[in-house]
Amino acid sequence: MADAIIQAHGLTKIYDAAVGGRVVAVDEIDLQIESGEIYGLLGPNGAGKSTTIGMLTTRVVPTRGSILIGGVDLVERPALAKQLIGVVPQSNTLDRAMTVFENLEFHGRYFGMGAKRARTVAAELLQRVRLVERSKAPVMALSGGMAQRLMVARAIMHRPQVLFLDEPTAGLDPQSRIALWEILGDLHDDGQTILLTTHYMEEADEFCDRVAVMDHGKILALDTPAKLKASIGAGRIVIVSASGDLEMLSQALVAGVDGAREARTIDGRIHLSVDDSTGLLPRIIDCAEAAGASVNDLSVTEPTLESVFINLTGKDLRE
Amino acid sequence: MSTTQEERSLSELRPAGQAYRAAFVGLLGRDLYLLRKDLKIFLLRTLIQPLLLVFVFTYVFPKTGQSVGGSSGASRFSTQLVAGVMGLAIVFQGIQAVALPLVQEFGVSREIEDRVLAPLPTWMVGLQKIVTGLLQGLLAACLVFPIASLVPATPVHLHIRWAVLLTLAPLAGWVAGSLGLMLGTKVKPFQVPLLFSLIVLPLTFLGCTYFPWQDLQNVVWLKWVVLANPVVYMTEGFRAALVGGIPHMPLVGIYGALVGFGALFTWIGVTGFERRVVS
User: Fold this and answer.
1) Minimal Cα–Cα distance from A182 to chain B, Å?
2) pLDDT per position as a tens digit, B144-157
3) Cα–Cα distance for residue pair A23/A13, rounded to 1 Å
C-alpha cells in the first residue's frame, strides 16, 4: 500500500494472568493504516482494542509481531517512535498540578519546542478546541468533555503522524460527543491520520473511513462501514419479538418468508435478514402463528455495524 | 511503503539524542516550575520540622536545664545535630518531592501515563525524577543549614571541609532521590501511612541523626544494624563535612556506602518504574 503510515504484522500480546494462566489479548493481527484516514477498531469490551492501541503507542510490548510507524520500527525504537504519535488515553491523564494552558505549554517543551513557540502553539490550540476562556483554570475544574478536548489538543500539539484515541467518547454527554467529533472532523479534513477504538457502532459507522471489527483478540472483518454492512447481503433486518419456541420459529421464518435469508436469536429476539421488507410483516405474523408462536413486536432496520458484528460473532456488541 | 513517505517521516524526526535531551530538560523544567509555583508549600514542608526539632532540642532544653546529649553536654549535641538535620532535610525531599507525587501519579491520577509518552526512553523518565529529588534535596539542605547553626542556644562548632561538602551533598541527594523513586514505584496509595511508620520514621530515628555512629559502641548490636540504613552515611558524611570535634565514620566507608546505595536504589527504582508503565 503506497501510503500506509502504520504497518503491523502478526501483532500478538499474551499476558501471564495470575489466575487462569495465559491470556491471549491480541492474536496475530495485521494492520495497515493509510495516511489521512480515520480507522476505527470496533468491538466489545475485552476484544483487545486497548491492548492493540497500547502496542501501537509503546505502552504495551508485543509478545510477537512487528510495527512500522512512519518508517520507524516501533518495537525496536519506541523512544524515537514517540515523536510520531499522539495519544488520547481512556482516562484523564492531564497534569493536575498545572493549568489548562500550562498543560499544553509544557507538553510542547517535552517535544522540543522553545518556550515562546510552545506558548504560541498552545494559544492556537486552545482556540481550536474552544477552551480559550478556561486557559488559566486548573484542569481539575474542567468537565469531562472539556478535559477530553484538552487531551486532544495536547496529543496533536507536536504534530504527530498518527493520532490515537482510546474510547474517546466513552462517558461523555451527547453535546460533548458532538463537540469532540467536530474537532476530530476538522483534523481529518486537515489530513490527520486517526486511529480510534470504540464500542459505539453508530460512531464507527458515521465517522470512520474504515472499520476493523474485533473480537477475542482477532480482526474478524475490515472494510468501509458501507461495504461491511453490504457484506451481510441483506437489504433490511426484521427484529421479531415473540413468545414460544424461538429456535423453531427461526427455522419456520427462513423457510416460509420469501426473501428471508437468515435468522439469528439474539437477546431473546429473532434477527431476520431479508432482501426487502416491503409487505413482509403480515407474512411474518402469519408464519409465526402457523408455527405456534405469537408475535409481540416487529421492527425493521437497515443493517448496522451491529448487524455485521452479530453476523460475525453470533452475539450482541453490548454483551 | 513508498520511498517518499519514508523519507518524509524520517526527515520530520529529530535525532534521538537531541529529542531525549529536550524531553529530559522539559520534564525537569516542569518539576522546577512547580517548585517555584508552590514555593510557599515547599518552604513550609522543608523548614517547619527542622526548625521545631532544633528549637526544642537545642534551644528550649538547654534553657530549661534539661540535659540532652549525655555527659558531653548541650553544645556537643547542638553541633552534631547540624549534620543530622542536613541529612534529614535531604532524605525528606526524596520522599516528599519524588515518592509521594509518584504514588499519586501512578495510583490515583494515572497522569504518569502521559509523562512516559514524552519522546525519551522510559527509564530516563525515572532518572529525571531522581534528578528532581537531588536538586530539591540540595535546596532543602541549603535552607536548613542556617537554622541548624544559628537557632541553638549553645555554640555550634562548625568546621567546614568544602571538598567533602561539595561532593557529599550531591551524593546524598542522589541516594535520597533514588530512594524516593524506588518507594514511589513500589508503594500503593493506601500504603502511604505505612510508608511513614515503617520506613520514614526508622530511617530518620535510626539514621544517626541525633547521635554520632561512634557513640553507639555501648549498644553494639544497634551499631551494626544501623549500617543497613542509608541515612546513616548521609548524616555521618555531613558530620565529616561540617563540624569539628565530633567523631565520624571513615570517609571511605561513607562514600562507598552512598555510591552503593545510590546505584542499588537507582537500579531498583528505574526498573520498577519501567515495569509499572510498560506491560
Assistant:
1) 24
2) 888 888 888 888 88
3) 8
